[in-house]
Specification:
The protein has 16 helices and twelve strands. The chain is globular, with a radius of gyration of 20 Å.
Length: 384
């Protein structure tokens, strides 16, 4: 069955579209996770452990889905989590996602391993912008990225703290996925059988990692798996003092991405974080770790009201967002929910995916009897 973006109605449909359009190594890089991928599955399945309790007769013709996050008001309680290597998935990459973020007035993130520069994103896109900072061994590189985010007026930095070594991503080992992609005997037939992707990759703008290319060759000029990149290039000695120094240098809203324990949530506040992202990196690092949704209540009970809390990962439905908000999340974010759509059909795919998700949230709020996000609360949810 040949799929098109306008016949996709949910994240699973966009996943199949991406699988249709991408060479196998690239698809499995997006789709895969660490070890036995237990955490990957649990990230979504955890939302099915509880039920929403609606109220009726609340006059919900008009609903307000906006939330305040990281010093900005966004129109929906969901944003594009920063992800790496986007122009491998589609030749427009971050540019396509940024245009959709502008249309929906929500946060748009780019990564240290992004394929479009901080300078371009800062100058060309007016939506709220967040930069995902991977802390490298090269302090000059770290300082350069922070200084560029200041110069080009990014609104927030998300320091990623759960990637001090690469997760065991066995799908990547089997397919031979690297950055940049390697054309070898193992992958050759898959690239040949996906000519649209292959021609776009070979004939359009040359692949690069502009944040890194003046400092490291790995990932741009030297093929390397992402797992190896994390292990060899990122700083394994980072501590809470490291985050505090970054916070002081940045002096704008700071988010810490990869918080999973109550103890760490409390420490995040102590070092000046404005927000935390409860995240296990999409199940791509420590397999067997808890899902963000499963940890949400525990963290909200401890630090809710003291720091903004973002539930990151596993989001496939608008009702998943409503469940997280009911437990006390400030907002939600996700990667695969838009990367499948980007890979499947570029900007048109991402826009349709976000249209569908936004309408699910709006419809769900009306069916819940909620005029605004603040109407959602613990009384609206029960665990089985």
């Amino acid at each position: 069955m040949f799929r098109t973006y306008n016949k996709c109605y949910n994240t699973d449909d966009f996943r199949l579209l991406a699988k249709q359009n991408l060479p196998s190594p690239v698809f499995h890089y997006i789709d895969g996770a660490a070890d036995d991928e237990i955490t990957l599955r649990q990230n979504t399945e955890s939302y099915n452990k509880c039920d929403l309790i609606p109220n009726v007769l609340r006059g919900v013709k008009d609903v307000d889905m906006s939330v305040d996050l990281l010093g900005k008001k966004i129109d929906i309680p969901l944003f594009f989590s920063p992800t790496a290597l986007q122009r491998i998935f589609h030749h427009k990459g971050e540019r396509a996602v940024g245009r959709v973020a502008e249309k929906f007035n929500t946060f748009f993130g780019i990564s240290s391993l992004g394929t479009v520069s901080i300078e371009e994103i800062g100058m060309e896109y007016k939506c709220p912008k967040i930069f995902q900072l991977y802390i490298h061994k090269d302090q000059g590189l770290n300082d350069n990225m922070i200084e560029k985010c200041i110069e080009y007026n990014f609104d927030a930095i998300a320091v990623t703290v759960d990637t001090i070594v690469g997760g065991n991503r066995e799908r990547d080992l089997r397919t031979g996925f690297t950055s940049p992609p390697s054309l070898n005997l193992k992958s050759l037939m898959s690239f040949i059988s996906h000519p649209n992707w292959t021609l776009n990759y070979l004939l359009r703008e040359k692949f690069s990692l502009p944040q890194l290319q003046d400092y490291v060759k790995e990932g741009t000029n030297i093929n390397m798996s992402i797992g190896d990149y994390f292990t060899k290039m990122l700083d394994q000695d980072i501590t809470w003092n490291t985050i505090e120094k970054i916070s002081n240098k940045w002096n704008k809203p700071l988010c810490i991405k990869g918080i999973m324990s109550v103890e760490d949530a409390k420490k995040a506040i102590d070092v000046g974080a404005s927000a935390i992202m409860i995240s296990n990196h999409g199940g791509r690092q420590l397999d067997g770790s808890r899902s963000p949704f499963d940890q949400l209540s525990e963290i909200v009970d401890s630090v809710g009201g003291k720091v903004e809390i973002i539930c990151d990962g596993g989001i496939r439905r608008g009702t998943h967002v409503l469940k997280a908000l009911s437990l006390g999340a400030t907002a939600c974010s996700g990667g695969r929910m838009y990367l499948y759509a980007l890979a499947g059909s570029g900007e048109l795919g991402v826009e349709r995916a976000m249209d569908l998700m936004t309408e699910e949230i709006r419809r769900g709020m009306k069916l819940m009897g909620c005029k605004s996000i603040s109407d959602l609360g613990i009384e609206n949810i029960r665990f089985r």
